[in-house]
Amino acid sequence: MSIDPSIRDAALAWAMATRAPDFADWDGFAAWLEADPAHAGAYDAVQYALEDADAVLAALPEPEPEPVAAPEPANDNPPGWLAGRRAWLGGAIAASLVVALTSVLWFGPGGEQLYRTAPGETRLIALGDGSTVELAGGSTLALEGTRAARLEGGQALFTIRHDAANPFVLTAGGERLVDAGTVFDVRLAGETLDVAVAEGAVIVDPQGQAIRLDPGERAVRQGGRFRRAAVDSAAVGEWRKGRISFESASLAEIAAELTRATGTRFTSTDTATRLSGSIALADVRADPQALGPLLAVRVTRAGDGWTIAAR
């Protein structure tokens, strides 16, 4: 399955335009996104490819300085013309790379749109109906149209436009979650599923347990059973602001979450020691050993990463 060339070209034009610091036509951009569900997917695919194109261009060596030549007759090109032409060529190369890359980075085996983030990376996905998904680091999400998705691992914050006739359905860890006009966060790590609601409501397993979560409520599945708990609505999705919290988590679980959130590799074999707390990720990125006094643990260098152990 391939991208419609006309939609891809329009998505590329919008992607290049929105990158400009002085871009102001956000109303026009929003209208284009809402005009067709395929537009949002194409735009995200193009942005994904542009990021890869940027990486390719960044890796290219700087051109050798040209030899000094004899003066040439004056021409009509204005000062700075060469620098502008070089910048234009960079954009043209990036655009051509996007055309090639979007043909292979959009669709998964079943035709769904696949999104993956590297550890430490985040990504905003705009859906065609005005809803959005913010994907945390080290996460994988499959979109099945604009009203269904599957979180295969990691964490995501969903801001969903409610449609009673066509509710948004998320599958995560084998569970179905149905929105009721909602802002909610979902984290899937192994068999642990954590759902927290900031606005609206979510119905977990509507055909079975039918657990309704309202603002300030969360449900955590561990060992195959859900446990309900209260949560500060303002803290739902706090990873977007550079902070993660955990409750009675083992050091092994904390290490895995830190790796996913920061992009720095942390490991621990300790599954017995359990801690609760909150960590500002900027501090950990700047100095991984800052975890020591924060959590009262030992943090030691191990190859290209760090190990965490109880004191």
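Above is the first protein from milestone M3; the second protein from the same milestone is given next.
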Amino acid sequence: MTPLILFGVALVLSALIYPAAIGRLARARMGQQIREEGPSAHQAKAGTPTAGGLVFLLLALVLYLVADRSITGAFVVIALFLGGALGFLDDFAAVRGGRNLGLRARQKIVIQLVTGAVLGWLALRWGLTNQLVPFDGQRAIGGWIILIAALAVAAGSNAFNLTDGSDGLAAGTGAVTFGALALIAVLQHRPGVGLMPAVLAGVLVGFLFYNLFPARLFMGDTGSLALGTAMVAVAITTGFLWYLPLLALVFVVETVSVIAQVASFKLTGKRVIRMSPLHNHFIVAGWRETPLALWFWTGSLVAAVLALVLARPGPGA
């Protein structure tokens, strides 16, 4: 089965499954808790079912078992479930605690670093250390993959999580990124490596039917931490890890906006933008969420094209 066909299958299945998932999560009282520090317009979203990312995990596992069963596919599924498990614990703690806090930041970062190190160790054991180095071609990075993967997972999963704060924004941006990674695998003449990113791109497009404004369902940390971890895993399997910051530029910009905001406020007492992450700046300024999502998707598409042009991931990659 080709990545394109699997993309279509994942899209259709997710679009069909989500109505039932929305009802089930609502009955389980998995309602989103909204941060008081966020945009005031978001308070109306309180109670919207969250943890919709559970469907990502379910469909990815089923389609992997049916259509993939490769080592690279297993690597991505393992990453997805490790990130999803942490995210579900966070969602469950936040919902049961009645406030949008969940696990402590230090707890999450430690678990993310350990998760990344485990994935790096698996990559080393399974021979997934060959990466495209900018302006230097493909190189094996050996045991360094453990440290690099640990840092990349911590950064990538948190970046995806920060971006997931406006209806449709993270899902559409993630779909573009995973779609680009699937295309990279095809350009490398390794379509099997592109199956799982194609599945995740398809699932995200199906999810968008229910996540565009006004969202009927949120992916929650279950989805965002799972997808951020899986994004790094796919970058490793395609040898595109060094180019991931460019490919995932929207996620990087969102993260940098938070870092700059915190640093500026602590050092000078002033804010560089109205509210971080960056998408909240535009929401507070009066932007509607659907046009905002479209602009962020466009930025993600431009970054993906630029990464493909610079890396030129052909059959020799």
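Note on the second protein: Residues 153 and 192 are 23 Å apart (CA to CA).
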